[in-house]
Design a protein that fits this description.
With about 70 residues, the chain is mainly alpha-helical. It has helices at about 15-20, 20-40, 50-70. It has a domain at about 25-70. The longest helix has 20 residues, at about 20-40.
């Protein structure tokens, strides 16, 4: 199976760049998810409960946004 996406350049330049950089954006989201995971998994004893909970909320929200947009980080 083959798929072709066509863009009218230069009019569709922004959409074109979004499409060709989709893999990079996925990597950014995955890296952020992993960073947030690391902040809670390896939290220091000095980290406040509020900070810890903020990291949890951020990661949960990121994953919720990913799910709502029918994409995944795998």
């Amino acid at each position: 199976m083959e798929a072709t996406i066509k863009f009218n350049l230069p009019e569709d330049q922004v959409e074109f760049e979004t499409a060709i950089n989709a893999g990079k954006w996925k990597s950014v989201a995955w890296d952020m998810d992993q960073w947030l995971r690391k902040q809670t998994k390896h939290a220091s004893d000095e980290m406040s409960e509020d900070t810890y909970n903020a990291f949890i909320e951020c990661r949960d929200t990121l994953r919720e946004i990913v799910f709502e947009n029918n994409v995944n980080l795998d």
